[in-house]
Amino acid sequence: MKEFLGQWMPPDYSAHGWQVDQIIIYTHWLMLVLFVFWTAYFLYVLVRFRASKNPRASYHGMQSHWSTWSEAGVAVVEIVLLVGFSIPAWYRWSTLIPKATNPAEIRIVAEQFAWNVHYPGPDRKFGRTDVKLVTSTNPIGLDMTDPAAKDDVMALNQLHLEVNRPALIHVTSKDVIHSFKLPVMRVEQDAIPGADVPIHFTPIRTTNGDRWEIACAQLCGLGHYRMRGQIFVDTKADLEKWLAEQPKIQ
């Protein structure tokens, strides 16, 4: 089943992605069993209770409890999927990673119809932002009078990460609700105006010339179809070189 799904799903290049795929695989197995079972039952009923063999309707219904037990079995499997896999996975992904893991912190500010990516620079401190300072050349309103903002880097639709280093992404929006999705990282989070929602994951493979997409998974307006970006996973040296080459906000 995993190999079968691998033909239809994006590749997985994150440390936690296999857990997401595992839940999907188990869910598909359950759906396959239910499909086969109910199809067989449907065909059985068509033959067993056809009009030629049952000219008079029976109003007693089923007298045995096998349907009750089958429904209980489905419920048990669903509870196992929920309690044994989904909830523990949700807990791990919703718990912030400790600073001791040295995560790469980045801000994603969504707007119609682009992704503004804010890197804190070598000091690892985000500069102060103010909505009154938002312009066409300063899309997040970075306050350049703040010393922490002097080395910050802004990129449009380009998310650069370091391979094998935890990434802590702060997701928010300037206008409407968007949905920040990285299919190859098995990551998705709504970008909500006024809310800073952190997500974390660890990329485990460099891009190597491939094109990995940042998608908006929430209908956000007429230009939703073109709200796309790219994610790049680099070595530490390549990432530092790229950051050094980026122009600073004036």
Given the C-alpha coordinates, what overall shape results?
elongated
Order of helices and strands: HHHEEEEEEEEEEH
Q: What is the total tally of β strands? A: 10
Biggest sheet strand order reads 3-2-1-5-8
Profile the largest sheet: 5 strands, mixed
Which percent bin holds the helix content?
25-40%
- Oligomeric state of the chains? single chain
Q: How would you describe this structure to a colleague?
A:
This protein is α+β, with helices and mostly antiparallel strands and 250 residues long. It contains 4 helices and 10 strands. The protein has helices at 2-6, 17-48, 66-94, 236-245; strands at residues 104-111, 114-119, 153-156, 158-162, 167-173, 178-182, 187-191, 197-201, 212-216, 228-234. It has a 5-stranded mixed β-sheet with strand order 3-2-1-5-8, with no helix packed on it. Strands 4-10-9-6-7 form a 5-stranded mixed β-sheet. Helix 2 runs antiparallel to helix 3. The longest helix has 32 residues, at 17-48. The chain starts with a helix and ends in a 5-residue tail after the last helix. The mean pLDDT is 87.
Structural features:
10 strands, alpha+beta, five-stranded mixed beta sheet, 250 residues, elongated
